[in-house]
Write a structure and sequence with these properties.
16 strands; Arc Repressor Mutant, subunit A; nine-stranded mixed beta sheet; single chain; 42% helix; globular; alpha/beta; Rossmann fold; three-stranded antiparallel beta sheet; binds S-adenosylmethionine
């Protein structure tokens, strides 16, 4: 290995680079997300096979040094996780096997790291798959993205594809490239790393930063005139983060997004985001579940419970002078956030339901609020429990009957205001 700045290069014969704590968290997330998502897509036992395209757009050399041992990099993690998920799907089956037919695309432009990756795949017994199910590209991701997307289309099966775009900083992926993925591959998802701190620290209303942000497709989302004023204030990072997160979401063209900081336990500062973009609500929910499961390793600086993606002047303390608008600290996905989310949603969801007197399908409610809450579907159901149990809200089962508990609500249930109560309460 050699290191230039904060960038590693893999060299055959040398020890692989050390696995830093951030990457460890990221690897855990990729592993858990992929495993869970395969489980969700294959939840119906009658589905015999899942076709999946897995792209590692910034693959690296495939191995790390971790303490005294060796740890897999993201390409091996993808391969191993699919194997494990497939074994689980077949664990109790005696007859026909269920299969995950994955095609892998690994991209690494650095010649030495590319050779190392090829060598690693062969050493780990994946050599026979190279040029078949595993395609390797010694290129920059952007130059092969269209080819990979086309291969994903021809792999069929709902065109399900996960693109892991683990760039070092923030400027190796242009948002229009991400948008193209979504436009051309209907089942695509993107997991993107974005080192927001290294952008924000030096960001000024200058030719240099206009050019950088234009290149990555985010220039229009930054309120340039405001930067100097915001930077003189106390919470400028959060303010500008809101503009950039909003930009990533809008420019990607994806319907759903989670965007949270990755931070290993006790490790500060909060420097980079792990962004998940998808058009499938279920994918968004699975990603949130994984964030909660690794609660101390992820953080957010948004309102607990409910938030808007994007800049909100009414939340700008330097504009409003309302210091009680407390969304300035970055916090973990912990019990405090969970109770705050339940508390906020307990108040807010009945209001949403009362403003839909004809009823609101639970699935539609979830799609409407997915980008505005850190809460998973499970937490939302928990938040509805008080309303359902007190009959303030009724969850009507498709085909008849009412739910007695929030946790039993199904996606196809229709949430309606309690008729008599809505007459008494009028507008909430
Ligand atoms: C953070 S490392 C990837 C680590 C890998 N995802 C893992 O977790 O095991 C980033 C890699 O991207 C490669 N890289 C740099 N610029 C790139 C580009 N434009 N397209 C694709 N890969 C690039 C670097 O050579 C480096 O190996």
């Amino acid at each position: 290995m050699t290191k230039t700045g904060d960038k590693w290069q893999w060299i055959i014969g040398d020890a692989p680079p050390p696995l830093d704590p951030h990457s460890k968290v990221k690897h855990q997330l990729v592993r858990d997300y992929l495993y869970k998502y395969i489980g969700v897509l294959m939840a119906n036992e009658k589905i015999p096979r899942l076709k999946l395209t897995l792209v590692d757009g910034f693959a690296g050399g495939g191995l790390y040094t971790d303490g005294n041992g060796i740890a897999p990099g993201s390409p091996l993690i993808m391969l191993q996780t699919v194997k494990e998920a497939e074994a689980y799907l077949n664990a109790t089956r005696t007859q026909t096997r269920r299969a995950v037919e994955a095609q892998y695309h690994f991209v690494e432009p650095n010649p030495s790291s590319f050779e190392y990756l090829t060598h690693t795949l062969k050493a780990e017994n994946y050599g026979h798959l190279i040029d078949n199910d595993i395609r390797l590209y010694k290129n920059k991701f952007e130059s092969v993205c269209a080819d990979i997307t086309a291969a994903g289309v021809s792999h069929q099966g709902g065109q399900r594809a996960i693109f892991l775009l683990d760039q070092y900083a923030y400027n190796d992926i242009a948002m229009p490239t991400v948008r193209n993925i979504f436009q051309n591959l209907k089942g695509a998802e993107v997991i993107l790393t974005f080192n927001v701190d290294s952008l924000l620290t030096f960001l000024t209303d200058s030719k240099q930063f206009h050019s950088i942000t234009q290149k990555i497709g985010l220039e229009h989302y930054i309120n340039w005139q405001d930067i100097a004023r915001l930077k003189a204030g106390s919470h400028w990072r959060q303010m500008i983060q809101r503009q950039i997160s909003h930009g990533i979401w809008k420019a990607s063209g994806a319907r759903f997004m989670t965007l949270f900081f990755v931070t290993p336990k006790g490790n500060r500062p909060w420097s980079y985001w792990l962004v998940h973009l998808s058009n499938a609500y279920r994918a968004n929910d699975v990603m949130k579940t994984v964030h909660w499961e690794h609660g101390n390793s992820f953080g957010h600086s948004l309102d607990g419970g409910f938030f808007e993606i994007g800049y909100e002047a009414n939340k700008d303390i330097d504009v409003t002078s309302q210091s009680e608008m407390n969304f300035t600290e970055t916090r973990a996905f912990d019990d405090t956030l969970r109770s705050k989310s339940v508390e906020t949603l307990q108040d807010l969801l009945p209001r949403m339901i009362y403003s839909n007197p004809k009823g609101l399908l639970f699935n539609d409610l979830m799609s409407q609020i997915a980008n505005q809450t850190t809460a998973t579907e499970k937490i939302v159901k928990e938040s509805l429990h008080v309303g359902v149990a007190s009959k303030e809200v009724q969850a009507v089962i498709e085909g008849g009957g009412l739910r007695a508990k929030g946790s039993s609500i199904h996606g196809t249930d229709i949430l309606i205001p309690h008729r008599q109560r809505s007459i008494f309460l009028g507008h909430l």
